[in-house]
Structures are given as C-alpha cells and as structure tokens.
Amino acid sequence: MTDYFAFYGLPVSFNPDAALVKQKFYELSKKYHPDFYINESEAKQAEVLELSTVNNKAYQVLNDPFKRLHYILEVKGVLVEGENYSLPQEFLMDMMDVNEALMDLQLELDAGRLSALKADVAVVEQQIFDEIAVLTAKFDEQGGDGQSDSLAAIKDLYYRNKYLQRIRDSIKSVS
Q1: CATH topology for 89-174?
Q2: Which tens digit of pLDDT belongs to each residue from 99-119?
Q3: Where is the J domain positioned along the sequence (predicted)?
C-alpha cells in the first residue's frame, strides 16, 4: 500500500492541513502531468502515469475525513480486511432497539415515530463524530505508545459508525 502521507511529505495525521494537502496535490499534478512526458520513453510515460494516479488517489483519501480515517487505521495495521470485529454489547443492545423500531415501521409506517427514530440515530451519530474528533486530535498530539491506545478506540468508533450507516440506509428504505 502506498503511503500517501509520505508521498506528500506530510506526517501521518487524522487532521492534516487541508490547504497543504491541496497545495501538494496541485504541485504534483503539474509535476506528473502525462502531457509533459509525451516525448519520453514508454517506460517513463508509464511511470509518470502511475505517479499521477497515486497523486489522484492520495488526494481523494487525504481530502476526505472518512476515507482518511479508514486509510490510517489500515496503514497502522489496526483494520484488517474481513475482520469479524465485535462491537460492545451495550451499543448492540441500543441498536437492537433501533432495529426493532425499524421493523415495526416497515410493517406500519408512522411519520412521527420515523422522525423520532431518525433524531435518535442522529444523536448517536453525533456522539460518535464528537468522540472521533477528540481521539483523532489526541492521536495527532501523541507519539509512540499513546497512539496505539487512541487507534484502538478510534477503530471501535469506526465500526460503530459503519453499523450506523447500515441503519441509516434502512431508514431511507422505510421513508
């Protein structure tokens, strides 16, 4: 996996300077624009095209907070593809109540109950975003061992948010 932070010459951060990310993107877009290498060998053209592609992917990831969060957790070895992560029992119990309410709404739509359910989910979602903001700022300030504690907590919130995304999708299908 390409290290997008190293590619841009930036430290790994959940909250990089957005203006600096954009500046690096434009700088490398000019440097690796395939049109500037039209008279070069096929090998050089292929290399530049690959670097241009990496630049575009790096910008897409580093410019989007959710993609960046996922990427850092992956790069740090905290997220493993296909992992069967266990969410905390308390969270799952709360979500079971939400899912039951959703099933009831699928059987009998009630706009008031649906609106209340959306509001409840929005509150949980905001709490997760707030906790992620605190933990990612803490990670960026820490070094070494302290970062691994933050990463474990961020990973848990990442999975909670993914679970909530499925619920939000189900709510959309009901409304």
Answers
A1: Methane Monooxygenase Hydroxylase; Chain G, domain 1 (1.20.58)
A2: 999 999 999 999 999 999 999
A3: 3-75
CATH number of 4-63: 1.10.287.110
CA distance 146 to 167: 32
For residue 137, count CB atoms less than 10 angstroms from its CB and return exposed for 0-12, middle for 13-18, buried for 19 or more.
middle
All residues at 6 or more sequence positions from 147 whose CB lies less than 8 Å from its CB, including other chains: 76, 139
What are the sequence ranges of the domains in the chain? 4-63, 89-174
| Predicted structure pTM score | 0.88
